[in-house]
Design goal:
Blueprint: E1 2-3, E2 7-19, E3 22-31, H1 45-49, E4 64-71, E5 77-90, H2 92-96, H3 99-102, H4 108-111, E6 116-127, H5 132-148, H6 154-163, E7 165-166, E8 173-176, E9 184-187, H7 200-208, H8 210-221, E10 225-230, H9 233-247, E11 255-257, E12 274-279, E13 292-296, E14 301-303, H10 317-329, H11 332-335, H12 350-368, E15 376-380, E16 386-389, H13 391-397, H14 404-411, H15 413-422, E17 426-427, H16 431-438, H17 440-446, H18 450-468, H19 484-493, H20 501-517, E18 528-529, H21 545-548, H22 551-565, H23 569-582, H24 586-601, E19 606-607, H25 609-624, H26 634-642, E20 646-650, E21 653-656, H27 670-692, H28 695-705, H29 715-725, H30 731-760, H31 769-773, H32 779-782, H33 789-799, H34 806-831, H35 836-866, E22 886-896, E23 915-922, E24 925-932, E25 942-947, E26 951-958, E27 969-975, E28 979-985, H36 991-1005, H37 1014-1017, H38 1035-1051, H39 1054-1059, H40 1071-1079, H41 1096-1099, H42 1102-1113, H43 1115-1122, H44 1128-1133, E29 1140-1143, E30 1159-1162, H45 1167-1173, E31 1184-1188, E32 1195-1199, H46 1204-1211, H47 1223-1240, H48 1243-1247, ...
Parallel strand pairs: 10-12, 10-13, 11-12, 19-20, 32-35, 33-34, 33-35
Antiparallel strand pairs: 1-7, 2-3, 2-6, 4-5, 5-6, 8-9, 13-14, 15-16, 17-18, 20-21, 22-23, 22-28, 23-24, 24-25, 26-27, 27-28, 29-30, 31-32, 36-37, 38-39, 38-44, 39-40, 40-41, 42-43, 43-44
Helix pairs in contact: 5-6, 6-20, 7-8, 7-9, 7-12, 10-12, 10-18, 12-18, 22-23, 22-24, 23-25, 24-26, 27-30, 30-34, 30-35, 33-34, 34-35, 38-42, 46-47, 50-53, 51-52, 53-54, 53-57, 54-55, 54-57, 57-58
Length: 1885
């Protein structure tokens, strides 16, 4: 029973206290005066009576009523019903205010000017019961009595009201009267556990809508802040009440204030969650709240701030809930589309609807929490049940671990309350308990069918309704409202009277006295055992069963375990990978724990090493995929196993499995240990009572449970039984039970302290491995608040202690573990009520346990180190090159896949990676050699290696290998030969060893000095010390270098020395040189200059003559002589008829340090001028001639860019007045003279100074009338514009990146700079004939010399109109750009890890790298220069410092223009001349030494080789060398195996004495080659690997490749690799490998016939070696046959040449030269462009594509994809080449848009071709169709433009693999004949 009302108050307006115009209320009277003991008087009621503030108003307001809710300190809710009415009074303002004071009174005055004002007065009832309507009636009655002046005294009414007592629940009706002729019925709910909602829930949904309310519900459950706004106070209360009602069975336990007074509005900024209602009047003050969800009841909106994320219900629950709610609230929605809607489908009445909605939420929570009782752990039964909820297991079994909403709800306060309230197994039950226990099955079956759900909901709603309204309603409210007129009149007169305290108090006392004598009413609580419902395991999770159900997987796991225990290790090994894959699935993991458990039970826990290893691997794999929460209880199930499995290490020393499975997050999680502990305690307590019970009780219980099937009794059932018996037990019995339980918990705590120390103390306690890897530091984030920072902190500190002594650390590990265990013990013991003595005992015990364990571990650790490692594959030794030595023996590592998919088996084929083997560091390479970990390909050997000098990036990584124990550290090594080694060190490799490896690697990668590189140290055993003594062998070289340095100092003027930017190489500072520099101060200024013009012989001392003659012999001189650029004798005798001479001005490298000793300069320029000119150019690299066109005699010059100072002087017109001739100006004049000298050397200039027309320059290839525009070389103007890339191009003239072609389009051309380049970017006049203009230039005159310069350098230059040179500004790619682009290219080709991100696909990364764009730029400029030289203008390339882009352009130009450079000798010469002699900084760009390490790797030379490769692809017949040759150079220019590409200039090479040593001097060891060229020569003699069989050059053919990005291909050098042998560019390693293979004889194979087939894997085998091309194969066969016959086999080249010459002879004999012979010989077709094969003249003819793209691998030599049949036949053809089986005239349709033409067709059965000719007499075959490619011959139909009046049947089509040919014969029989003939040819084949 409870009082209906606790207090009655009258609250009025306080006239005395007005603070700043705001009125205040005060309590006028309160009854009873004394507080009740059981409910103290709530404070602050006067605020809540007028939530918007106390104010006087000029008009009377109607009386109002609402209920506010206050929560007291014990979180009891008090309902304050406020009834407010208004009383008139004279305006207090007017009374007290004089006229003088009026001004100062606040603004309210204006409002309250009336003489009469109204003040509010409230009657308040305070109660702990929530009967809104009853309160409304009672207070209304009091007011009516007052207003209408009824006879009943107010004191009596109030006394009755305060003494009225009613039952709290039980469903009874109680009629009450207050003694004023009134009667009301109070209806109590049947069960007060269910909330009473009236119709508030339905109202809430009407106001806000379904989705909004669901948002609010989820927000409230996940603890967000919710604020309701409305103009009505009662609505605020109702909305809050409705929201709480749908949360049932969870109870809201945070701040709950349905009506918040305006004065307390700052409460809204509290940090804790709340549900609060505020009047809309205060809306503006709620605007700035950032984290509050605002629900506006009047507007029907819910506003969620950006920063708040609400987790919604998990699908499909959300969807189903919304559907059912819609069916209740809007039943018409479902039938809105029906053709025949039912007559009525109105929603239920509000009251019923309210219950239906609540039923939906009840149904929802039953689904969310189904099976929760199976996750309750009962830790104590007596004296009070202590219950914990196992969150992880609950989420895991529902497979909702990822679900945000459920996680938050389970972590929330409401759920904690739910567990403590509903956890106890013996208590009163309610609707929810029944639903969860009995209806789960039904809910599951119906969940997908809304109508069945709806029926269920209606049943539940009925129960809920019945709970609130058990009886049909009795209308007995006899309380009349006051009559209207009385209301107004009466209150004017009489204010509400003061009541008689004494009278009321008497009433109260009287009633309490009565109550005391009445016996207390005992609330009958029917306690019962709470049913648990079906266990969770039966509930199939929707998403969890994908992986789980494969029975085959489980079988594999079982078999593997059986094999292990039966010691069938080989079988187990084969199954292992499958098992490890299967263990990703939950079912397989559960199966594993069960299987292992059985073996433990059979006492088979002691294993041998191999078994132990496998079991540990499986345990690790199982744990690896467990999250830290261990939601499936896998770790929990494994915990007893890891302390059971063990192996014997030595006498009395046993290693248990736990020491090998510590590296998992789960062991470091406090929550996991707690859950484990509680579940163990529960099972022990259960056992305790099961033993003590006799069988009787158990039977008894089973019958009660209704399950006589003898199902195991759960701990909860036992507990409820015990709780039932508890009151019947004697005191002693009770004590005994409490004690037993307590000691059970205590013993478990000791047990767990041991277990935890097992799993937390690492095996090697000196090195805290566990803590570093498991991220022990993240512990706080994992568990909820129990684990403070200390474990993370202490463990981290323990690892990084500053002392650095291991002993200190090991004790720290112990401390942190002790702290962790202590914290655990404290928590669980306090929760489970362990006595303090026991707790103290535990605390003293723990450090001892840990210490003991550490001691046993030390012994185990010591022994386990001695264990022979498990038989890992034996390390394979790599094959070393001659002179290569191991620096470090092999270290066992795993090679991880590098992001390329081929080797991992993802693209099909076996997974070759990851592989296990060893990494070797030699003086030259880094080599990995091993075998794949996949047992199915275990026999293959994997090799990956790269030269140490090509290492570009090394970074530490940490790797986990799924197959193995957790490998800790690894390295990722990236090489610029496009290899990536991602290695993980095996456990047996100590980390300090890995560190030593890194140090050695760095030393080798960046030696102090170039002499430390492999090319120099090769063959010198012992330490790598740069010895100076070795240099003395070649005396003359030393003296030469001394003299060089001296003379350099002499001739360089002092001002020049200081200005020089060039930083001398670091090794010049070595002592031997330093001393010389000191004694010989540079004092000589320029007076010595004349000496330089003396003859060569007189200046050089005799001792140096030999060396100088070496300079002369240098290849460059031979080339200059070949080009007719002067001989050395010329330069001495000065014969004037030669325009150029070889100058020796730089013979001592004094003029330009980075130029060669001999240079070509114009004849007329003396050396003294040169010394002055060179200062205008960067690095003194003045223009010199490097090539001359033999036809037009135009020359190509190279130089660096101008010095900024020089440029302006250079372009100044010569006659500007100036005060005195400055030095800059004089040099500028000399510079002009120099350029003029070059121009005048050109024959075209000297011949026709006047005749500058263009007629002479439209060269042959320009005018060939060729219909196919594609083949026409671009016009120079277009080229020029394209290269200059002017930004203001006229639309239509030329768009960058469009097709090259003539500039047609518009008549206006943009000019980039008034003069520069205009002569080239020709403007075309209007054409009379409308044809394309052939005029190439604007003026009818072209410049004689074009200077290609850098746009940035040439700003501000002015040009004279009459000068004969012209500057072409272009944008150059910066070295930095090349460097960054290359980095990105490497990332694209060898990503370090696979990515599924579409933005990181290979092609996208390739594009981002812009590598192709850079190639395009370089090629574009080169083609422009080639065009210019070909039209007779000279070109001077002067870009940057003249050693990067300049070198690329100049060498490409020569390669394209001069066929000589496309041969072996020529290419070698080109590289030696342009790259080596002219000082490309190989050492610096390749970062070869320590000094250049910072500058990084910049592959300028590689870019050049890639350009050559692009040209090679387009012109496969023009190069003597193959693609492999280019790859070979690309590999070795960074490998440092040869000295060729070391150092930055000839000067440095002479300095070091390496330039000429190949010539003289004894070689150290014959097999060590110092020059890459010699090596290539030698190799080329042995094998045709560098030779291009398709080589048949045209004479003087100038190549013009397409340069658009679409025409460029990615070089396969960047992508391919051969894992069987490593890169194929170190030839000896290959040869030796084969030899080794031959020496080990095959064991006699008895197994049966062996297959001859060999599987070829693209990324494993070297294709060219395994599947050689036809010619190579024939040559090899020839050699082996000759060897068999005992003949000495001749060199392959001789054989090849023989065949070619005999073929040439044959082809000369033939009257009609067949096409076939021209394939191998130089063809006599005038090729327009021989790209990708041969284009035939007849435009429609198919081209025979000698497909170059099929070149598959590094060593393959290009040959046709399918050798055309003619090639094969041509070797033994008859002299009469044409075998004409059938011939005649056919009309043939040309290519697209071409007409039909008659042609003479010949069908040749022998050669299997259909050839065609212009006419019968024509000897020249116009084209042919290979019959091998023909797919079908079918009758055709006439098409557009076909010959008229010919029978339709005369048409027929031949379909080949490439295209369809349309033919037409004279008549149909003829056509039939042709078709038959071709058909018969095909069938013969």
């Amino acid at each position: 029973m409870a009082r209906l009302a606790d207090y009655f108050l009258v609250v009025g307006y306080d006239l005395d206290k007005r603070v700043e115009g705001e009125g205040q209320g005060r309590i006028l009277q309160r009854f009873p005066e004394k507080d009740w003991e059981d409910s103290p008087f709530p404070q602050g009621i006067e605020l809540f009576c007028q939530p918007s503030g106390w104010q006087l108003v000029p008009e009377r307001q109607p009386a109002s009523f609402f209920v506010a809710v206050l929560t007291d300190i014990n979180s009891e809710r008090h309902y304050c019903a406020c009834f407010t009415f208004w009383e008139g009074l004279d305006n207090p303002q007017l009374q007290k205010a004089d006229a003088s004071e009026l001004d100062e009174v606040d603004e309210d005055l204006a409002v309250v000017q009336a003489a009469k004002v109204f003040a509010p007065k409230s009657l308040v009832l305070v109660s702990r019961l929530d009967y809104t309507e009853v309160f409304r009636n009672c207070l209304g009655l009091v007011y009516t009595i007052h207003v209408d002046g009824l006879s009943a005294p107010l004191e009596t009414v109030i006394g009755n009201l305060l003494t009225c007592v009613i039952p709290i629940a039980g469903g009874s009706q109680r009629t009450i009267t207050l003694g004023a002729g009134d009667r009301q019925v109070i209806q109590t709910p049947i069960n007060d556990a269910l909330p009473v909602s009236g119709s508030t829930v339905a109202q809430l949904f009407r106001q806000l809508g379904i989705v909004n309310v669901l948002y609010l519900l989820c927000a409230a459950l996940t603890e967000h802040k919710i604020l309701f706004l409305s103009n009505s106070y009662q609505r605020l209360t109702d909305a809050c009440r409705g929201l709480l009602a749908i949360m049932f069975p969870l109870k809201y336990s945070f701040t709950y204030v349905p009506i918040l007074p305006g004065k307390l509005i700052e409460v809204l900024s509290t940090p804790t969650p709340f549900i609060i209602g505020v009047n809309s009047f205060f809306r503006s003050e709620t605007q700035e709240l950032l984290d509050v969800i605002v629900a506006d009841l009047d507007g029907g909106t819910v506003t969620i701030p950006e920063c708040v994320h609400i987790s919604l219900l998990p699908e499909p629950l959300l969807q189903q809930t919304q559907t059912v709610l819609a069916m209740i609230l809007d039943p018409e929605l479902e039938i809105a589309d029906r053709a025949f809607p039912p007559l009525s489908s109105q929603p239920s009445a509000l009251k019923i609807q309210d219950k239906e909605i609540r039923a939906v939420f009840l149904w929802l929570f039953a689904r969310l929490f189904q099976g929760y009782r199976w996750c309750l752990h009962i830790i104590r039964i007596h004296p009070e049940p202590v219950i914990r909820f196992h969150k992880a297991a609950f989420l895991g079994q529902r497979s909702l671990t990822e679900d945000d909403f459920l996680m938050k709800v389970l972590d929330g306060m409401a759920f904690a309350g739910f567990v403590s309230e509903r956890g106890p197994p013996y208590r009163a039950t309610d609707l929810f308990d029944e639903l969860v226990a009995n209806e789960v099955e039904r809910i599951r079956q119906e969940e997908t069918c809304p109508h069945k759900v709806m029926n269920h909901v209606k049943e539940l709603a009925e129960q809920l309704f019945k709970n609130e309204n058990p009886y049909p309603a009795v209308a007995m409210h006899k309380v009349q409202p006051p009559t209207e007129n009385r209301q107004n009149a009466a209150t004017d007169k009489t204010p509400f009277p003061g009541l008689d305290d004494v009278a009321v108090q008497l009433f109260i006392d009287h009633a309490t006295a009565k109550l005391k004598n009445v016996p207390p009413v005992v609330k009958v609580e029917v306690k019962a055992m709470v049913p648990s419902g079906p266990p969770l395991g039966d509930i199939v999770d929707r998403n969890g069963n994908v992986m789980a159900n494969s029975a085959r997987r489980l079988e594999v796991v079982r078999n593997c375990i059986t094999y292990i225990f039966e010691n069938k290790m080989l079988e187990a090994k084969k199954l292992m990978p499958a098992v490890l894959r299967a263990l990703k699935g939950r079912a397989a993991r559960v199966c594993l724990t069960q299987e292992l458990n059985q073996h433990v039970l059979q006492n088979r826990a002691v294993l041998d090493d191999q078994q132990f290893d496998y079991i540990v691997r499986m345990l690790n794999c199982t744990l690896q995929d467990c999250s830290h929460m261990d939601e499936h209880g896998i770790a929990a199930a494994l915990l007893p196993l890891v302390t059971a499995f063990c192996r014997k290490l030595g006498a009395g020393i046993t290693q248990f499995a736990y020491s090998c499975v510590q590296e998992h997050m789960v062991w470091a999680t406090m929550q996991f240990w707690e859950a484990m502990f509680y579940s163990d305690v529960q099972s022990h307590i259960r056992a305790l009572y099961l033993e003590s019970e006799d069988g009787e009780q158990q039977k008894n219980l089973e019958q009660q449970d209704g399950s006589g099937d003898g199902r195991e009794i759960s701990a909860l059932d036992l507990a409820s039984e015990q709780n039932r018996l508890w009151p019947t037990l004697s005191k002693e019995m009770q004590m005994e039970r409490v004690q037993k339980e307590e000691s059970t918990v205590f013993s478990q705590a000791i047990h767990y302290a041991n277990r935890m120390s097992y799993l937390l103390l690492p095996l090697d306690t000196s090195k805290n491995r566990l803590l570093r890897n498991t991220g022990f530091g993240d512990v706080e984030s994992v568990s909820n608040s129990y684990v403070t920072n200390s474990i993370a902190g202490s463990m981290a500190e323990s690892y990084d202690t500053e002392s650095g002594f291991e002993d200190a650390e090991s004790s720290d590990v112990a401390n942190s573990v002790v702290r962790f265990i202590n914290r655990f013990v404290d928590k669980v013991c306090n929760e489970s009520g362990v006595t303090n003595e026991h707790l103290k005992a535990l605390h003293t015990m723990i450090p001892d346990i840990v210490q003991m364990h550490i001691e046993t571990l030390d012994a185990v650790h010591r022994e386990s180190k001695r264990l022979p490692p498990i038989q890992k594959p034996k390390l394979l030794r790599p094959i070393l090159l001659p002179g290569e030595e191991l620096v470090m023996e092999g270290m066992r590592v795993h090679l991880i896949p590098d992001g390329r998919e081929e080797a991992t088996g993802m693209m099909g084929g076996p997974p070759l990676l990851p592989a296990e083997g060893a990494i070797f560091l030699t003086t030259y390479r880094l080599i990995f050699k091993g075998t794949p970990t996949d047992p199915l390909v275990g026999e293959q050997v994997i090799t990956r290696s790269f030269p140490i000098a090509s290492l570009t990036k090394e970074k530490r990584i940490s790797v986990t290998i799924p197959m193995d124990q957790f490998v800790q550290e690894g390295l990722q090594l990236r090489s610029c030969t496009f290899q990536l080694m991602k290695i993980a060190f095996d456990e047996e490799v100590a980390s300090d060893l890995a560190e030593v490896f890194r140090k050695h690697m760095h030393k080798l990668r960046y030696p102090q000095h170039v002499q430390g590189t492999f090319a120099f140290t090769v063959g010198q055993s012992g330490k790598m010390v740069v010895e100076h003594k070795t240099k003395d062998k070649n005396q003359s070289l030393k003296t030469l270098s001394k003299n060089l340095v001296k003379s350099a100092k002499r001739t360089i003027g002092r001002q020049y020395v200081t200005r020089k930017k060039y930083s001398p190489p670091t090794w010049e500072n070595r002592s031997s040189f330093q001393s010389e520099l000191d004694e010989d101060e540079i004092s000589v200024s320029e007076e010595l200059e004349p000496q330089s013009s003396l003859t060569l012989s007189s200046t050089i001392r005799s001792s140096d003559r030999q060396t100088m003659s070496n300079v002369v012999e240098r290849a460059c001189c031979r080339d200059y002589q070949r080009l007719g650029l002067g001989t050395l004798s010329n330069s001495l005798t000065r014969s004037k008829n030669e325009p150029f001479r070889i100058s020796t001005v730089n013979r001592m490298y004094t003029v330009c340090r980075s130029y060669p000793g001999l240079l070509i300069v114009p004849q007329s320029i003396p050396d003294t001028t040169i010394q002055r000119i060179c200062r205008c150019y960067r690095q003194n690299r003045f223009p010199v001639v490097c090539w001359r066109n033999s036809r037009t005699k135009a020359v190509l010059l190279r130089s660096a860019g101008f010095h900024a100072k020089g440029v302006v002087g250079f372009f100044k017109s010569p006659n500007t007045p100036s005060a005195a001739p400055s030095q800059a100006e004089s040099t500028s004049l000399e510079q002009e003279k120099y350029l003029q000298a070059i121009i005048s050397s050109m024959p075209s200039y000297s011949e026709n100074s006047g005749r500058n027309t263009l007629s002479g320059f439209t060269s042959t290839h320009m005018s060939t009338s060729d219909s196919s525009d594609k083949l026409r070389p671009p016009k120079i103007g277009a080229l020029m514009k394209q290269v200059m890339g002017t930004k203001e191009d006229v639309p239509g003239t030329f768009s960058r990146g469009g097709k090259w072609g003539s500039i047609r389009g518009s008549g206006r051309l943009s000019t980039y700079n008034p003069d520069v380049g205009t002569r080239l970017a020709g403007k075309e006049g209007p054409q009379s004939n409308g044809g394309p203009s052939e005029a190439l230039f604007l003026r009818q005159q072209k410049a004689y010399l074009y200077i290609i310069g850098d746009k940035a350098q040439l700003k501000g230059g002015k040009q004279d109109s009459f000068q004969q040179w012209e500057v072409v500004p272009i944008e150059v790619c910066d070295v930095r750009q090349v460097k960054n682009s290359f980095k990105k290219l490497m990332k694209a080709c060898v990503p370090s890890s696979q990515t599924s991100d579409p933005n990181m696909s290979f092609l996208r990364c390739l594009e981002d790298s812009e590598w192709m764009t850079l190639l395009h730029r370089v090629l574009q400029v080169s083609v422009l220069v080639v065009e210019l030289l070909d039209t007779g203008s000279s070109v001077m390339v002067s870009l940057e410092d003249g050693w990067d882009v300049t070198t690329q352009v100049v060498s490409l130009v020569q390669l394209l223009s001069d066929p000589y450079y496309r041969t072996f000798d020529g290419f070698r010469l080109l590289v030696e001349k342009e790259w080596l002699s002219f000082g490309h900084k190989f050492s610096q760009r390749g970062a070869q030494t320590l000094g250049s390490q910072s500058s990084g790797f910049t592959p300028v030379f590689l870019q050049f080789l890639d350009c050559v490769h692009q040209i090679h692809l387009q012109f496969p017949m023009e190069f003597e060398f193959s693609q492999y040759y280019l790859k070979f150079l690309a590999y070795h220019y960074v490998s440092n195996r040869f000295r060729t590409f070391l150092l930055d200039s000839d000067y440095e090479r002479i300095e070091l004495g390496v330039l000429y040593e190949e010539k003289g001097g004894e070689r150290r060891s014959p097999q060590v080659c110092k020059s890459v060229w010699d090596y290539i020569d030698r190799l080329n003699k042995k094998t045709p690997v560098f030779f291009n069989y398709m080589f048949c050059p045209e004479d003087d053919e100038v190549l013009r490749p397409y340069t658009f990005i679409s025409n460029l291909k990615v070089w396969d050098f960047y992508m391919e690799e051969t894992l069987s042998e490593g890169p194929s560019y170190d030839w000896e390693a290959r040869v030796r490998q084969e030899r080794v293979a031959e020496e080990t004889p095959e064991k006699p194979d008895t197994s049966g016939p062996k297959s001859q087939r060999h599987i070829v894997w693209p990324c494993y085998d070297g294709l060219s070696k395994v599947v050689p091309d036809a010619i190579t194969k024939l040559l090899q066969d020839l050699q082996s046959l000759e060897a068999e016959l005992g003949q000495t086999s001749e060199k392959w080249k001789d054989t090849w040449d023989k065949i070619k010459t005999t073929q040439r002879a044959e082809s000369k004999l033939e009257s009609k030269p067949s096409f076939s012979s021209s394939l191998l010989m130089s063809s006599n077709l005038s090729h327009q462009r021989r790209s990708q094969g041969v284009y035939l003249q007849e435009s429609a003819g198919s081209s025979i594509n000698l497909a170059m793209d099929c070149e598959a691998s590094a060593t393959s030599t290009p040959v046709a994809g399918r050798p055309s049949t003619s090639t094969l036949y041509s070797q033994f053809q008859s002299t009469e080449s044409e075998n004409r089986s059938f011939e005649g005239i056919l009309f043939k349709k040309g290519a697209l848009l071409k007409p039909w033409k008659p042609r003479w067709f010949v069908l040749d059965k022998t050669k299997h071709q259909l050839r065609y000719y212009e006419s019968r007499q024509d000897k020249e075959c116009k084209g042919m169709i290979e019959l091998a490619e023909v797919e079908s011959v079918i009758p055709g139909t006439p098409t557009m433009g076909a010959p008229k009046n010919i029978d339709e049947k005369a048409f027929f089509d031949i379909k080949t693999t490439k295209r369809v040919y349309n033919f037409c014969a004279q008549d149909s029989p003829n056509a039939q004949l042709w078709m038959d003939s071709v058909q018969s040819c095909l069938s013969d084949a």
